[in-house]
Amino acid sequence: MATAPKEAENAIGLEEIHTERKESPKGQKTFTVEEAVETIGFGRFHIMLFLIMGSTVVHLFPKVAEAMEIMLIAVVSPLIRCEWQLQDWQVALVTTMVFFGYMVFSIVLGLLADRYGRWKILLLSFLWAAYFSLLTSFAPSYIWFVFLRAMVGGGVSGHAQGLIIKTEFLPTKYRGYMLPLSQVFWLAGSLLIIGLASVVNPTIGWRWLIRIASIPGILLILLFKFIPESARYNVSMGNMEAALATLQRIARMNGAAMPEGVLREPAKERGGRFKDLIHPKYLRTTLQIWIIWLGIAFAYYGVILASAELLERDVICGSAAPPVQDSGDDSEENHSPCYCHLFGPAAYQTMIISTAGEIALNPLNILGINLLGRRLSLCITMACTALFFLLLNICTSSAGMVGFLFMLRALVSANFNTIYIYTAEVYPTTMRALGMGTSGSLCRVGAMVAPFISQVLMNASFIGALCLFSSVCVVCAISAVTLPIETKGRALQQVK
Fold it and tell me: How far apart are CA 145 and CA 147, in angstroms?
Protein backbone atom coordinates (compact mmCIF):
# COMPACT_ATOMS: atom_id res chain seq x y z
CA MET A 1 0.00 0.00 0.00
CA ALA A 2 2.77 2.45 0.96
CA THR A 3 4.62 1.89 -2.30
CA ALA A 4 1.82 3.21 -4.51
CA PRO A 5 2.34 6.95 -3.81
CA LYS A 6 6.10 6.50 -4.16
CA GLU A 7 5.71 4.81 -7.53
CA ALA A 8 3.38 7.59 -8.63
CA GLU A 9 5.95 10.22 -7.61
CA ASN A 10 8.72 8.39 -9.48
CA ALA A 11 6.48 8.12 -12.54
CA ILE A 12 5.85 11.87 -12.45
CA GLY A 13 9.58 12.54 -12.13
CA LEU A 14 10.40 10.24 -15.05
CA GLU A 15 7.71 11.86 -17.13
CA GLU A 16 9.19 15.32 -16.46
CA ILE A 17 12.68 14.14 -17.40
CA HIS A 18 11.33 12.43 -20.52
CA THR A 19 9.55 15.62 -21.55
CA GLU A 20 12.74 17.63 -21.15
CA ARG A 21 14.85 15.16 -23.11
CA LYS A 22 12.54 15.31 -26.10
CA GLU A 23 13.65 18.90 -26.63
CA SER A 24 17.30 17.84 -27.17
CA PRO A 25 18.63 16.95 -30.65
CA LYS A 26 18.55 13.25 -31.46
CA GLY A 27 21.72 11.36 -30.62
CA GLN A 28 23.19 14.19 -28.52
CA LYS A 29 24.02 13.34 -24.93
CA THR A 30 22.63 15.75 -22.37
CA PHE A 31 22.47 16.04 -18.60
CA THR A 32 20.53 18.06 -16.05
CA VAL A 33 21.86 19.99 -13.05
CA GLU A 34 20.50 17.22 -10.82
CA GLU A 35 22.48 14.59 -12.74
CA ALA A 36 25.61 16.76 -12.64
CA VAL A 37 25.34 17.29 -8.88
CA GLU A 38 24.92 13.54 -8.32
CA THR A 39 27.82 12.66 -10.68
CA ILE A 40 30.23 15.18 -9.14
CA GLY A 41 29.34 13.92 -5.68
CA PHE A 42 30.45 15.19 -2.29
CA GLY A 43 33.92 16.64 -1.86
CA ARG A 44 36.13 19.61 -1.04
CA PHE A 45 33.71 22.17 -2.40
CA HIS A 46 30.93 21.01 -0.08
CA ILE A 47 33.23 20.97 2.94
CA MET A 48 34.28 24.54 2.13
CA LEU A 49 30.64 25.52 1.69
CA PHE A 50 29.76 23.88 4.99
CA LEU A 51 32.50 25.75 6.84
CA ILE A 52 31.64 29.11 5.26
CA MET A 53 27.91 28.72 5.16
CA GLY A 54 26.94 26.21 7.80
CA SER A 55 24.16 24.04 6.48
CA THR A 56 20.75 24.36 8.03
CA VAL A 57 19.76 27.95 7.64
CA VAL A 58 22.82 29.85 6.64
CA HIS A 59 26.55 29.78 6.54
CA LEU A 60 28.84 29.28 9.50
CA PHE A 61 29.01 32.94 10.42
CA PRO A 62 25.39 33.65 9.47
CA LYS A 63 24.29 30.71 11.56
CA VAL A 64 26.29 32.05 14.49
CA ALA A 65 25.05 35.56 13.73
CA GLU A 66 21.39 34.50 13.60
CA ALA A 67 21.64 32.61 16.88
CA MET A 68 23.33 35.61 18.48
CA GLU A 69 20.58 37.94 17.27
CA ILE A 70 17.83 35.72 18.67
CA MET A 71 19.53 35.06 22.03
CA LEU A 72 20.47 38.73 22.34
CA ILE A 73 16.94 39.72 23.32
CA ALA A 74 16.88 37.19 26.17
CA VAL A 75 20.09 38.47 27.77
CA VAL A 76 19.44 42.17 27.14
CA SER A 77 15.79 42.27 28.29
CA PRO A 78 16.51 42.71 32.04
CA LEU A 79 18.82 45.64 31.29
CA ILE A 80 16.51 47.56 28.98
CA ARG A 81 13.68 46.92 31.46
CA CYS A 82 15.73 48.79 34.05
CA GLU A 83 16.97 51.56 31.79
CA TRP A 84 13.56 52.49 30.40
CA GLN A 85 11.40 51.21 33.32
CA LEU A 86 9.41 48.81 31.16
CA GLN A 87 6.42 46.68 32.08
CA ASP A 88 6.23 42.96 31.27
CA TRP A 89 4.16 43.43 28.11
CA GLN A 90 6.64 46.00 26.79
CA VAL A 91 9.53 43.57 27.23
CA ALA A 92 7.52 40.84 25.47
CA LEU A 93 6.70 43.27 22.65
CA VAL A 94 10.41 43.57 21.77
CA THR A 95 10.58 39.87 20.88
CA THR A 96 7.24 40.02 19.09
CA MET A 97 8.35 42.92 16.89
CA VAL A 98 11.58 41.15 15.92
CA PHE A 99 9.48 38.30 14.57
CA PHE A 100 6.98 40.69 13.02
CA GLY A 101 9.81 42.16 10.94
CA TYR A 102 10.93 38.64 10.09
CA MET A 103 7.40 37.65 9.03
CA VAL A 104 6.83 40.67 6.75
CA PHE A 105 10.20 40.56 5.02
CA SER A 106 10.34 36.75 4.75
CA ILE A 107 7.66 36.61 2.03
CA VAL A 108 9.03 39.62 0.16
CA LEU A 109 12.61 38.34 0.13
CA GLY A 110 11.43 34.85 -0.87
CA LEU A 111 9.68 36.31 -3.92
CA LEU A 112 12.71 38.42 -4.82
CA ALA A 113 15.08 35.45 -4.42
CA ASP A 114 13.07 33.35 -6.90
CA ARG A 115 13.18 36.22 -9.39
CA TYR A 116 16.61 37.78 -8.91
CA GLY A 117 18.71 35.04 -7.33
CA ARG A 118 19.50 33.51 -3.95
CA TRP A 119 22.99 35.03 -3.70
CA LYS A 120 21.88 38.65 -4.17
CA ILE A 121 19.12 38.40 -1.58
CA LEU A 122 21.41 36.63 0.88
CA LEU A 123 23.99 39.43 0.56
CA LEU A 124 21.31 42.10 0.89
CA SER A 125 19.87 40.46 4.00
CA PHE A 126 23.25 40.40 5.75
CA LEU A 127 24.05 44.00 4.90
CA TRP A 128 20.60 44.97 6.16
CA ALA A 129 20.75 42.94 9.40
CA ALA A 130 24.31 44.02 10.27
CA TYR A 131 23.50 47.71 9.66
CA PHE A 132 20.35 47.81 11.79
CA SER A 133 21.84 45.60 14.49
CA LEU A 134 24.65 48.11 14.90
CA LEU A 135 22.19 50.99 14.95
CA THR A 136 20.28 49.29 17.78
CA SER A 137 23.18 49.87 20.12
CA PHE A 138 22.66 53.63 19.71
CA ALA A 139 18.86 53.52 20.30
CA PRO A 140 17.95 56.62 22.37
CA SER A 141 14.59 55.28 23.56
CA TYR A 142 12.43 52.18 23.88
CA ILE A 143 10.42 53.04 20.74
CA TRP A 144 13.57 53.33 18.66
CA PHE A 145 14.90 50.08 20.13
CA VAL A 146 11.74 48.19 19.15
CA PHE A 147 11.73 49.66 15.62
CA LEU A 148 15.40 48.88 14.98
CA ARG A 149 15.08 45.32 16.28
CA ALA A 150 12.12 44.80 13.95
CA MET A 151 14.36 45.90 11.07
CA VAL A 152 17.01 43.42 12.22
CA GLY A 153 14.36 40.70 12.15
CA GLY A 154 13.56 41.66 8.56
CA GLY A 155 17.19 41.23 7.58
CA VAL A 156 17.58 37.89 9.37
CA SER A 157 14.58 36.54 7.39
CA GLY A 158 16.71 36.55 4.23
CA HIS A 159 19.24 34.20 5.80
CA ALA A 160 17.05 31.27 4.75
CA GLN A 161 18.46 31.67 1.21
CA GLY A 162 21.69 30.17 2.57
CA LEU A 163 19.85 26.93 3.29
CA ILE A 164 18.47 26.89 -0.25
CA ILE A 165 21.89 27.42 -1.83
CA LYS A 166 23.36 24.65 0.31
CA THR A 167 20.48 22.27 -0.41
CA GLU A 168 20.66 22.84 -4.17
CA PHE A 169 24.36 21.92 -4.27
CA LEU A 170 24.22 18.79 -2.09
CA PRO A 171 23.82 15.30 -3.62
CA THR A 172 20.60 13.61 -2.54
CA LYS A 173 22.07 11.06 -0.14
CA TYR A 174 24.08 13.68 1.78
CA ARG A 175 21.29 16.19 2.44
CA GLY A 176 19.84 14.26 5.38
CA TYR A 177 23.28 14.11 7.03
CA MET A 178 24.90 17.46 6.30
CA LEU A 179 21.97 19.82 6.80
CA PRO A 180 21.29 18.98 10.48
CA LEU A 181 25.00 19.27 11.35
CA SER A 182 24.90 23.07 11.21
CA GLN A 183 23.06 22.98 14.52
CA VAL A 184 26.63 23.09 15.86
CA PHE A 185 26.87 26.65 14.55
CA TRP A 186 23.57 27.68 16.14
CA LEU A 187 24.81 26.24 19.43
CA ALA A 188 28.11 28.10 19.02
CA GLY A 189 26.30 31.39 18.43
CA SER A 190 23.96 30.90 21.37
CA LEU A 191 26.75 29.96 23.78
CA LEU A 192 28.89 32.82 22.50
CA ILE A 193 26.23 35.44 23.21
CA ILE A 194 25.50 34.00 26.67
CA GLY A 195 29.21 33.95 27.50
CA LEU A 196 29.71 37.49 26.21
CA ALA A 197 26.67 38.73 28.11
CA SER A 198 27.97 37.34 31.39
CA VAL A 199 31.16 39.39 30.93
CA VAL A 200 30.07 42.47 28.96
CA ASN A 201 26.69 43.29 30.55
CA PRO A 202 28.00 43.85 34.11
CA THR A 203 31.06 45.82 32.90
CA ILE A 204 30.56 47.99 29.79
CA GLY A 205 26.83 47.45 29.26
CA TRP A 206 24.30 46.02 26.82
CA ARG A 207 25.04 48.54 24.05
CA TRP A 208 28.57 47.20 23.65
CA LEU A 209 27.21 43.67 23.78
CA ILE A 210 25.06 44.41 20.70
CA ARG A 211 28.02 46.01 18.89
CA ILE A 212 30.19 42.95 19.54
CA ALA A 213 27.34 40.64 18.48
CA SER A 214 27.18 42.46 15.12
CA ILE A 215 30.73 41.41 14.20
CA PRO A 216 29.97 37.88 12.82
CA GLY A 217 27.43 39.28 10.35
CA ILE A 218 29.92 41.90 9.16
CA LEU A 219 32.72 39.32 8.79
CA LEU A 220 30.50 37.12 6.64
CA ILE A 221 30.12 39.86 4.03
CA LEU A 222 33.87 39.57 3.36
CA LEU A 223 33.42 35.86 2.49
CA PHE A 224 30.59 36.30 0.00
CA LYS A 225 32.90 36.12 -3.03
CA PHE A 226 33.47 32.43 -2.23
CA ILE A 227 29.73 31.65 -2.33
CA PRO A 228 28.39 30.81 -5.82
CA GLU A 229 24.89 31.44 -7.09
CA SER A 230 22.76 28.31 -7.27
CA ALA A 231 23.29 26.43 -10.56
CA ARG A 232 19.67 25.28 -10.39
CA TYR A 233 18.50 28.88 -10.16
CA ASN A 234 20.67 29.91 -13.14
CA VAL A 235 19.25 27.06 -15.22
CA SER A 236 15.69 27.99 -14.26
CA MET A 237 16.42 31.53 -15.49
CA GLY A 238 17.97 30.30 -18.75
CA ASN A 239 21.52 31.34 -17.78
CA MET A 240 23.11 28.09 -18.90
CA GLU A 241 26.68 29.44 -19.18
CA ALA A 242 26.76 30.58 -15.56
CA ALA A 243 25.27 27.29 -14.37
CA LEU A 244 27.78 25.23 -16.36
CA ALA A 245 30.70 27.35 -15.11
CA THR A 246 29.62 26.81 -11.51
CA LEU A 247 29.27 23.04 -11.98
CA GLN A 248 32.70 22.84 -13.65
CA ARG A 249 34.23 24.77 -10.77
CA ILE A 250 32.71 22.33 -8.27
CA ALA A 251 33.95 19.35 -10.29
CA ARG A 252 37.51 20.76 -10.34
CA MET A 253 37.48 21.36 -6.58
CA ASN A 254 36.14 17.87 -5.90
CA GLY A 255 38.53 16.24 -8.37
CA ALA A 256 35.57 14.69 -10.18
CA ALA A 257 34.52 14.47 -13.82
CA MET A 258 31.51 16.21 -15.30
CA PRO A 259 28.80 14.09 -16.98
CA GLU A 260 29.21 13.59 -20.73
CA GLY A 261 27.24 15.79 -23.12
CA VAL A 262 25.78 19.28 -22.80
CA LEU A 263 23.76 20.82 -20.02
CA ARG A 264 20.10 20.52 -20.86
CA GLU A 265 17.86 23.54 -20.50
CA PRO A 266 14.44 22.68 -19.05
CA ALA A 267 11.24 24.20 -20.28
CA LYS A 268 11.20 27.79 -19.08
CA GLU A 269 8.77 28.55 -16.28
CA ARG A 270 7.85 31.78 -14.59
CA GLY A 271 9.45 32.40 -11.19
CA GLY A 272 7.64 31.49 -8.02
CA ARG A 273 4.25 33.08 -7.41
CA PHE A 274 2.10 32.82 -4.31
CA LYS A 275 -0.70 31.13 -6.23
CA ASP A 276 1.72 28.31 -7.13
CA LEU A 277 1.90 27.37 -3.43
CA ILE A 278 -1.88 26.94 -3.28
CA HIS A 279 -2.15 25.18 -6.65
CA PRO A 280 -4.05 21.88 -6.21
CA LYS A 281 -0.79 19.97 -6.69
CA TYR A 282 0.78 21.63 -3.61
CA LEU A 283 -2.19 22.99 -1.64
CA ARG A 284 -2.41 20.23 0.96
CA THR A 285 1.36 20.06 1.39
CA THR A 286 1.61 23.84 1.77
CA LEU A 287 -1.17 24.10 4.36
CA GLN A 288 0.25 21.28 6.46
CA ILE A 289 3.78 22.70 6.25
CA TRP A 290 2.48 26.07 7.42
CA ILE A 291 0.76 24.46 10.42
CA ILE A 292 3.96 22.62 11.35
CA TRP A 293 6.20 25.69 11.00
CA LEU A 294 3.85 27.80 13.11
CA GLY A 295 3.63 25.14 15.82
CA ILE A 296 7.37 24.43 15.95
CA ALA A 297 8.24 28.12 16.35
CA PHE A 298 5.51 28.54 18.98
CA ALA A 299 6.99 25.66 20.99
CA TYR A 300 10.65 26.61 20.44
CA TYR A 301 10.44 30.23 21.49
CA GLY A 302 7.92 29.36 24.17
CA VAL A 303 10.52 27.11 25.82
CA ILE A 304 13.22 29.78 25.65
CA LEU A 305 11.05 32.61 26.97
CA ALA A 306 9.37 30.51 29.69
CA SER A 307 12.63 29.22 31.17
CA ALA A 308 12.86 31.93 33.84
CA GLU A 309 9.25 31.38 34.99
CA LEU A 310 9.73 27.59 35.02
CA LEU A 311 12.89 27.77 37.10
CA GLU A 312 11.26 30.19 39.54
CA ARG A 313 8.32 27.80 40.01
CA ASP A 314 10.75 24.91 40.49
CA VAL A 315 12.33 26.60 43.52
CA ILE A 316 8.90 27.01 45.14
CA CYS A 317 7.75 23.51 44.18
CA GLY A 318 10.89 21.58 45.00
CA SER A 319 11.77 23.16 48.31
CA ALA A 320 9.98 24.15 51.47
CA ALA A 321 12.23 27.18 51.76
CA PRO A 322 11.16 30.46 50.18
CA PRO A 323 12.68 31.41 46.84
CA VAL A 324 16.22 32.68 47.15
CA GLN A 325 17.57 35.37 44.90
CA ASP A 326 20.46 34.54 42.64
CA SER A 327 23.67 35.40 44.46
CA GLY A 328 24.83 37.40 41.48
CA ASP A 329 21.74 39.62 41.59
CA ASP A 330 22.33 41.28 44.98
CA SER A 331 22.89 44.78 43.67
CA GLU A 332 21.29 48.17 44.22
CA GLU A 333 19.68 47.92 40.78
CA ASN A 334 17.56 44.99 41.97
CA HIS A 335 15.88 47.25 44.52
CA SER A 336 15.33 50.22 42.20
CA PRO A 337 11.81 51.59 41.56
CA CYS A 338 11.62 49.72 38.24
CA TYR A 339 12.06 46.37 40.03
CA CYS A 340 15.06 45.17 38.06
CA HIS A 341 16.03 41.53 38.34
CA LEU A 342 19.35 41.13 36.55
CA PHE A 343 20.86 37.81 35.53
CA GLY A 344 23.53 36.40 37.80
CA PRO A 345 26.03 33.54 37.35
CA ALA A 346 23.45 30.85 38.17
CA ALA A 347 21.03 32.17 35.55
CA TYR A 348 23.70 32.21 32.86
CA GLN A 349 24.78 28.69 33.84
CA THR A 350 21.20 27.42 33.47
CA MET A 351 20.91 29.10 30.06
CA ILE A 352 24.13 27.45 28.91
CA ILE A 353 23.02 23.97 30.04
CA SER A 354 19.58 24.21 28.42
CA THR A 355 21.03 25.69 25.23
CA ALA A 356 23.53 22.82 24.98
CA GLY A 357 20.51 20.54 24.71
CA GLU A 358 19.93 21.81 21.18
CA ILE A 359 22.64 19.53 19.87
CA ALA A 360 22.08 16.58 22.25
CA LEU A 361 19.71 14.69 19.94
CA ASN A 362 21.47 15.63 16.70
CA PRO A 363 22.90 12.13 16.04
CA LEU A 364 19.52 10.48 16.69
CA ASN A 365 17.78 13.17 14.63
CA ILE A 366 20.09 12.52 11.66
CA LEU A 367 19.58 8.77 12.02
CA GLY A 368 15.80 9.16 12.14
CA ILE A 369 15.67 11.52 9.15
CA ASN A 370 17.63 9.09 7.00
CA LEU A 371 16.20 5.77 8.19
CA LEU A 372 12.59 6.59 9.09
CA GLY A 373 12.11 9.42 6.63
CA ARG A 374 11.28 13.08 7.17
CA ARG A 375 7.59 12.63 7.99
CA LEU A 376 7.78 9.88 10.61
CA SER A 377 10.89 11.36 12.24
CA LEU A 378 9.17 14.74 12.62
CA CYS A 379 6.01 13.10 13.97
CA ILE A 380 7.98 11.28 16.69
CA THR A 381 9.94 14.35 17.85
CA MET A 382 6.81 16.53 17.88
CA ALA A 383 4.92 13.93 19.95
CA CYS A 384 7.81 13.75 22.43
CA THR A 385 7.86 17.56 22.63
CA ALA A 386 4.16 17.50 23.59
CA LEU A 387 4.90 14.93 26.33
CA PHE A 388 7.78 16.91 27.85
CA PHE A 389 5.68 20.07 27.99
CA LEU A 390 3.24 18.20 30.20
CA LEU A 391 6.06 16.78 32.32
CA LEU A 392 7.06 20.35 33.26
CA ASN A 393 4.04 20.41 35.56
CA ILE A 394 5.59 17.71 37.77
CA CYS A 395 7.11 18.95 41.03
CA THR A 396 10.75 17.98 40.90
CA SER A 397 14.19 19.12 41.98
CA SER A 398 16.08 21.96 40.34
CA ALA A 399 18.20 19.42 38.49
CA GLY A 400 15.07 17.66 37.28
CA MET A 401 13.59 20.90 35.92
CA VAL A 402 16.85 21.74 34.12
CA GLY A 403 16.79 18.20 32.70
CA PHE A 404 13.26 18.71 31.33
CA LEU A 405 14.30 22.03 29.77
CA PHE A 406 17.39 20.36 28.32
CA MET A 407 15.28 17.68 26.62
CA LEU A 408 12.72 20.19 25.38
CA ARG A 409 15.41 22.31 23.75
CA ALA A 410 16.85 19.17 22.15
CA LEU A 411 13.45 18.12 20.77
CA VAL A 412 12.35 21.50 19.44
CA SER A 413 15.74 21.87 17.79
CA ALA A 414 15.31 18.48 16.09
CA ASN A 415 11.87 19.60 14.89
CA PHE A 416 13.36 22.66 13.24
CA ASN A 417 16.11 20.61 11.58
CA THR A 418 13.62 18.22 9.99
CA ILE A 419 11.08 20.77 8.77
CA TYR A 420 13.82 22.94 7.23
CA ILE A 421 15.08 19.97 5.23
CA TYR A 422 11.60 18.82 4.20
CA THR A 423 10.46 22.27 3.04
CA ALA A 424 13.60 22.81 0.97
CA GLU A 425 13.19 19.39 -0.67
CA VAL A 426 9.46 19.30 -1.37
CA TYR A 427 9.16 22.39 -3.60
CA PRO A 428 10.65 22.72 -7.13
CA THR A 429 13.46 25.18 -7.86
CA THR A 430 11.16 27.80 -9.41
CA MET A 431 9.25 28.22 -6.14
CA ARG A 432 11.64 26.86 -3.49
CA ALA A 433 12.69 30.24 -2.09
CA LEU A 434 9.08 31.43 -1.96
CA GLY A 435 8.06 28.22 -0.21
CA MET A 436 10.78 28.73 2.40
CA GLY A 437 9.91 32.43 2.71
CA THR A 438 6.20 31.92 3.35
CA SER A 439 6.90 29.04 5.74
CA GLY A 440 9.38 31.22 7.62
CA SER A 441 6.77 33.96 7.75
CA LEU A 442 4.14 31.66 9.30
CA CYS A 443 6.83 30.39 11.64
CA ARG A 444 7.21 33.90 13.02
CA VAL A 445 3.48 34.16 13.73
CA GLY A 446 3.99 31.37 16.24
CA ALA A 447 7.07 33.14 17.59
CA MET A 448 5.11 36.40 17.98
CA VAL A 449 2.41 34.71 20.04
CA ALA A 450 4.83 32.72 22.23
CA PRO A 451 5.98 35.63 24.47
CA PHE A 452 2.44 36.39 25.59
CA ILE A 453 1.72 32.74 26.38
CA SER A 454 5.04 32.18 28.17
CA GLN A 455 5.14 35.46 30.08
CA VAL A 456 1.46 36.35 30.53
CA LEU A 457 -0.79 33.27 30.36
CA MET A 458 1.72 31.12 32.22
CA ASN A 459 1.58 33.49 35.19
CA ALA A 460 -2.23 33.30 35.20
CA SER A 461 -2.59 29.56 34.56
CA PHE A 462 0.56 27.47 34.54
CA ILE A 463 -1.10 24.19 33.56
CA GLY A 464 -3.26 26.00 30.98
CA ALA A 465 -0.18 27.36 29.20
CA LEU A 466 1.54 23.95 29.23
CA CYS A 467 -1.56 22.23 27.86
CA LEU A 468 -1.77 24.79 25.07
CA PHE A 469 1.87 24.21 24.08
CA SER A 470 1.37 20.44 24.25
CA SER A 471 -1.85 20.52 22.18
CA VAL A 472 -0.21 22.52 19.42
CA CYS A 473 2.64 19.98 19.26
CA VAL A 474 0.13 17.10 18.96
CA VAL A 475 -1.58 18.84 16.03
CA CYS A 476 1.83 19.30 14.37
CA ALA A 477 2.70 15.61 14.92
CA ILE A 478 -0.51 14.54 13.17
CA SER A 479 0.09 17.01 10.35
CA ALA A 480 3.66 15.74 9.90
CA VAL A 481 2.82 12.05 9.61
CA THR A 482 0.00 12.77 7.11
CA LEU A 483 2.07 14.92 4.74
CA PRO A 484 1.31 13.70 1.19
CA ILE A 485 4.94 13.52 -0.04
CA GLU A 486 7.96 11.83 1.55
CA THR A 487 11.17 13.51 0.34
CA LYS A 488 13.66 10.95 1.67
CA GLY A 489 15.86 9.87 -1.28
CA ARG A 490 13.85 12.04 -3.66
CA ALA A 491 15.66 14.17 -6.24
CA LEU A 492 15.10 17.92 -6.02
CA GLN A 493 12.45 18.92 -8.55
CA GLN A 494 13.53 21.53 -11.10
CA VAL A 495 10.13 22.53 -12.52
CA LYS A 496 6.54 22.53 -11.26
Answer: 6
